[in-house]
Design brief:
Blueprint: E1 4-9, H1 21-34, E2 38-45, H2 48-53, E3 55-63, E4 71-78, E5 81-87, H3 89-92, H4 110-125, E6 136-140, H5 147-154, E7 160-165, E8 173-174, H6 178-181, E9 195-196, E10 199-201, H7 202-209, E11 212-215, H8 218-223, H9 234-238, E12 244-246, H10 276-286, E13 297-304, H11 310-322, E14 326-333, H12 335-347, E15 352-356, H13 360-369, E16 372-375, H14 385-392, E17 395-399, H15 402-407, H16 413-417, E18 424-426, H17 431-446, H18 448-460, H19 466-479
Parallel strand pairs: 1-2, 1-6, 2-5, 6-7, 7-11, 11-12, 13-14, 13-16, 14-15, 16-17, 17-18
Antiparallel strand pairs: 3-4, 4-5, 8-10, 9-10
Helix pairs in contact: 4-5, 10-13, 11-12, 11-17, 14-18
The structure holds adenosine-5'-diphosphate.
C-alpha cells in the first residue's frame, strides 16, 4: 500500500496544549496512523506553549497580512509530532487558554483567529506552502471547520477532506460581516455553504463542505442526526450523502498503563488486581478520606458541567454517604457546580474529597485507586475517562449515551450469565436512575468474585488506537486525492 499524507488541523494537541479530549485524540492519531501507512502532520495555532515546544522550526510560508498582522507557517517537531504551526503573534501570543483570556471570557476575535488557522491549513493543502502537500485534510471541530470552505471556494485541485465532530455543542458562530475580512467570497454565504442562521457557521461549513463527516462513536453518529441531540445541525447532518461515520477514540496505552504507571503507589496488571488496594489507601490518604478498604470508593475526573451530569452527582452525595460510599472528584468548570461540590466536600469530611483544577497525575491515581469511575453525562460524543477506567480496572458507571453506550458492557444478569459485562450503564440520565445504578454497583462490589471477574474483563477490553486508526486510514484512502501542485 502506498504511503498517504494527511494534514490534521486542530486547535489543541497533547502534550503541548489541552483543554479536553480533543487534544488527546489529535496528539495520539499521528503515531496510530503511522502504523497504518499514513504520514500525518498536524497544523496548530502558535500559542506560547506550542512555540516553546517547537524544535527545528523552518518557515514554509509567509502571509504579509493574515487577519490583522503578519504570519508564518513553521514546519517543525515537538517530540514525535510533526507540526505545522501558524505563527501569528497578533492572534495567538496571549496568556490564557486557547479560547479565552485569563478572566474566563472568550477572546472577542475568536472568529478571526480560527479562520486564520483554517486559511493557513488550506494554503498547505493547496500546495502554496512548501513541498509537503497532503492527499487528505482532516479537520477537527469548529475551530478547523472553515478549512473545507477555503478549499471548496478556491476552485482549484484539492485534497480529500474529512471533518470530525468531537462535540456538536461547540459550533463557532460569527457575524456575517466577518466574511470579507476572513477572505471568503460573498457567494459562500448560502444554505449549502457557510451560512448558519444568518451568521457564519464554522462547524456547519465543515459539515456541509467536507467529503466525509465522522464523529467519535457509532451511537453519537446516530444521535446527532435526531432533533433531540442534533443541536440545530441535525438537518445538515441528515443531508450528508455518505451519512456520518462513527469511529471510536482510543487512548494512549503507553501513557495509560497500570503495569508501568510511575504516578501510582503500586503498579499492577489483571493478574495482580489486589495490588489496587495500596493505591486506594494512598488515594484516600491524599484526599483526606477515611482509609476504609470496605468503602466503595467512586472516582470522577471530569469537566464540572451540566453536559457531564455533575449536578446529578452532586444531588446524590448525601445518599452515597448514607450508604457508606466514598467519592473523589477531580475537575473544574461551571462555577456554581464547583461551589456546590466544595460545600459537599466540607459537609462530608472523610467521605468526599474534591480537587479543583487540572492534575494529570491525580487523574491517573484516581483511575488506579478508585473502585468505580462515574460518568453520568447527558450526552457524550465518545468519552475518554471510561476507557482509562476500563484499562485500570476502575469499573465505569456510565449513562447509556453516545460513546459511553458503545464502550461499556452493562453487567446485568444476562451479561453476567454469559461472562460478559465490564461496568454499569443507566438510562434515562436522571438522578434516580443514576442512584439505582450506584446501588446496583454496590451490590456487585459486595460480591467479590463477580467484581474481580468484571475488573479482569474490563482490563482486557481493547481501548487502544489500533482499531480506530485502521478505520481512519480506510476512510482517508476512500477520499484521498493525490496532491496536485508541487512535484514529490
Ligand atoms: P471532554 O468532553 O472534556 O473532552 P473526555 O472524557 O473526552 O471529555 O476527555 C477528557 C480528558 O481530559 C481525559 O483525558 C481526562 O482524563 C482529562 N481530564 C478532564 N478533567 C481533568 C482534570 N481536572 N485533571 C486532569 N485530567 C482531566
Amino acid at each position: 500500500m502506498s504511503r498517504l499524507r494527511a494534514l490534521s488541523v486542530a486547535s489543541e494537541i497533547f502534550p503541548l496544549v489541552k483543554t479536553g479530549g480533543l487534544a488527546d485524540v489529535v496528539g495520539a492519531l499521528p503515531a496510530a496512523l503511522a502504523a497504518e501507512g499514513v504520514e500525518v502532520r498536524t497544523m496548530v495555532p502558535g500559542y506560547p506553549a506550542v512555540m516553546r515546544g517547537l524544535d527545528a522550526a523552518t518557515p514554509v510560508h509567509t502571509f504579509n497580512q493574515l487577519h490583522g498582522g503578519p504570519a508564518r507557517v513553521l514546519s517543525g517537531r515537538a517530540g514525535a509530532l510533526d507540526l505545522l504551526v501558524l505563527e501569528a503573534p497578533h492572534l495567538f501570543s496571549r496568556a490564557g487558554n486557547p479560547y479565552s483570556g485569563p478572566n474566563g471570557a472568550d477572546w472577542p476575535d475568536n472568529g478571526a483567529r480560527f479562520a486564520a488557522l483554517a486559511r493557513a491549513a488550506a494554503a498547505v493543502a493547496l500546495g502554496d506552502a512548501g513541498s509537503w502537500v497532503p492527499d487528505v485534510v482532516h479537520a477537527h471541530d469548529w475551530q478547523a471547520g472553515l478549512t473545507a470552505a477555503y478549499l471548496h471556494y478556491a476552485n482549484r485541485p484539492r485534497p480529500g477532506t474529512v471533518m470530525t465532530v468531537h462535540n456538536l455543542a461547540f459550533q463557532g458562530q460569527y457575524p456575517g460581516e466577518l466574511l470579507g475580512a476572513i477572505g471568503l467570497p460573498p457567494h459562500a454565504m448560502g444554505v449549502d455553504g457557510i451560512e448558519y442562521y444568518g451568521s457564519i457557521g464554522y462547524l456547519k461549513a465543515g459539515l456541509a463542505l467536507s467529503d466525509r463527516v465522522t464523529t467519535v462513536s457509532p451511537t453519537y453518529a446516530a444521535e446527532v442526526t435526531t432533533s433531540e441531540h442534533g443541536m440545530g445541525l441535525d438537518g445538515v447532518l441528515r443531508a450528508r450523502p455518505h451519512g456520518i461515520d462513527g469511529i471510536l477514540n482510543g487512548i494512549d496505552t503507553d501513557v495509560w498503563d497500570p503495569r508501568t504507571d510511575a504516578t501510582l503507589a503500586a503498579t499492577y496488571d489483571s493478574k495482580r488486581v489486589a495490588a489496587r488496594a495500596t493505591n486506594k489507601r494512598a488515594l484516600q490518604r491524599e484526599l483526606g478520606l477515611e482509609e476504609r478498604p470496605d468503602a466503595l470508593l467512586c472516582g470522577v475526573v471530569s469537566r464540572l458541567t451540566w453536559q457531564k451530569g455533575m449536578d446529578l452527582l452532586h444531588e446524590l452525595v448525601p445518599w452515597m454517604a448514607s450508604q457508606g460510599m466514598q467519592l473523589v472528584v477531580l475537575g473544574s468548570g461551571d462555577a456554581r457546580i464547583e461551589q456546590a461540590f466544595k460545600e459537599a466536600a466540607r459537609g462530608y469530611p472523610g467521605t468526599m474529597g474534591l480537587v479543583t483544577g487540572y492534575d494529570e497525575g491525580l487523574a491517573h491515581r484516581i483511575q488506579g485507586g478508585s473502585d468505580a469511575l462515574l460518568v453520568p453525562s447527558r450526552f457524550e460524543p465518545c468519552g475518554l475517562t471510561q476507557l482509562c477506567a476500563l484499562r485500570y480496572g476502575a469499573l465505569p458507571v456510565v449513562a447509556r449515551v453516545g460513546g459511553l453506550a458503545d464502550t461499556v458492557v452493562d453487567a446485568n444478569a444476562m451479561a453476567l450469565a454469559a461472562k460478559a459485562g465490564t461496568g454499569v450503564q443507566f438510562s434515562p440520565v436522571t438522578r434516580d436512575a443514576f442512584g439505582l445504578a450506584l446501588a446496583r454497583t454496590l451490590r456487585l462490589w459486595r460480591d467479590r468474585p463477580t467484581w474481580r471477574a468484571l475488573q479482569r474483563r474490563a482490563m482486557a477490553t481493547d481501548v487502544s488506537w489500533s482499531g480506530p486508526a485502521a478505520q481512519y486510514a480506510a476512510l482517508y484512502r476512500a477520499v484521498a486525492r493525490p496532491a496536485a501542485t508541487p512535484a514529490r
